[in-house]
# Entry
Amino acid sequence: MKNKGMQLGAVLAAMLLLGMVSIPAVSAQSDEKQVKQIDPYTYVVDKKVPDKKKFLDKIEPIIDREHNVSSSTGQVTSQDFDTSKSNTYSQNVLGSSIEGRTYAHGVQQSGWQATYTGDGYTKGYWWGSNPYYADRITLGSQVVVHGISVTVSVPPSIGFSVSGDTATYSGSWDNEWAAIHYYNNLVGTSNWALTGSDQYDSETFRFGNTDYTLYTHVALP
# Structure
């Protein structure tokens, strides 16, 4: 009887331990449901949470992983590279702050046809509580692949339009406090040479009749 009691205690302890281990995963899944996915590459948040920054610190890595946002090899030579850069800018408004974030990752390879393949994101956040939401958030992004006679192509689903060496995106959402847009498989090609890329982003927050715009930029390599 004593052995059975000890075995039962061990089983209960193991069950409790498993339950404790699974709690963060359940919590993360619950947080992820607070984010609205507009399309495969776009997310917004309009839910009220106890702490906006803590909420996004928890949920951002999950969404980033889904879009394969990761560090590059950091390799850079005269023509070829695999590198990434990010930029963040904030501004105090209405007793709190707005924030814009830009990230770009590019792989450039020379050869009989030089190729640049890029991915990245644009993010805009309103951290305030009064008002809790921005009346409108607008994200804009322009990715330029530099070189001689460059042609850029993108998957139709990422929301960019293309003209020559430039891909452009713009999206707006009402009554949100966060907006995120990702892109991937942006490809630039040249039969001559490529010399890197620039990503110029804007994050505009409207409160009433007033717009506040941030500008973030990264250049690769």
Remarks:
- Residues 48 and 132 are 8 Å apart (CA to CA).
- The chain is about 20% helix and 55% strand.
- The helical segments are 2-32, 52-66.
- Residues 1-29 have pLDDT under 50 and may be disordered.
